[in-house]
Amino acid sequence: MPKLCIHCGTDCTDSKRFKDAQGNYTCLKCYDRLKYGLPIQKDVEADQGAPIALADEGPVAGEQTQCPRCKQEIPAGETVCRNCRYDVTIGAAPMAPGMQAHRPCPKCGYDLAGLNRKASCPECGADEYEQESVRREKKKAAVASSFYIEPLKIAAGGLIGLAILRLANGEPMRLLVDLVALAVCVPLGVLAYWFFSIIWAGGLDQGWLLAAANFFAVFSVCWAIEALFNYFPVPVVGWLVSLVVYYGMLTYRLDLDGWKDALILTVFLRIIQFGTLFLIVSLL
Predict the structure, then answer these.
(1) Over the chain, what HEC string results?
(2) What is the model's pTM?
């Protein structure tokens, strides 16, 4: 369906346009002319007997003209006002560079290039305040999602390392036990974190889902490290490295304040890990 300008009647479907509250469209050319108080130039059928105006006709040499926009004098032989850049040959001032840049509407994606910064979107009708609100909400959502992406990437790296170690040593069944134990340990770790936060730390610092993603990362990486030292044993070192990684990741991922908090939570998680593995192996 064509989108016709109510002033000049031109089809502005594929060009910049404005839409009022009644759903009527105004093309960019008419919008500029109305803004500067200039008459609308409608496309009318040319008189075959009238003389044809040349496209490059401008002010007569030796005569000054007055700018219709700012009323300043335009020097003889020139067509562009030196004061406001109004071009008498096109009946409007050229767009500022900032208006020419690609600028999608944050609500519907329509390109707002060429429109005033305060103009409403001609497609969805969102005004500048709604556009800014949608823009802020999208930014907040993007920031929130980034908090989950990082621990999930760390968890994926730990799982890949664990799978390579188990399969390379011909223990696919043990890998299955690890995955089942991880699925059980993550929610148990969140419960332990809740208990620890209420009893010891005085309140939760992270939401349930974010805490679960961080515990998933901690368990996956530490499980892979323990598997590595299981196949390449080094006395005391393997156990110590695993404990340090637990402590360091918990401090960083859960943003714990003191070393005592991280140490107590590490002990909780180690008990959960070994207890879960023992229970699963016993059932098998």
Answers:
(1) CCCEECCCCCECCCCCEEECCCCCEEEHHHHHHHHCCCCCCCCCCCCCCCCCCCCCCCCCCCCCEECCCCCCEECCCCCECCCCCCECCCCECCCCHHHHCCCECCCCCCECCCCCCCCCCCCCCCCHHHHHHHHHHHHHHHHHHHHHHHHHHHHHHHHHHHHHHHHHCCCHHHHHHHHHHHHHHHHHHHHHHHHHHHHHHCCCCCCHHHHHHHHHHHHHHHHHHHHHHHHCCCCCHHHHHHHHHHHHHHHHHCCCCCHHHHHHHHHHHHHHHHHHHHHHHHHC
(2) 0.52
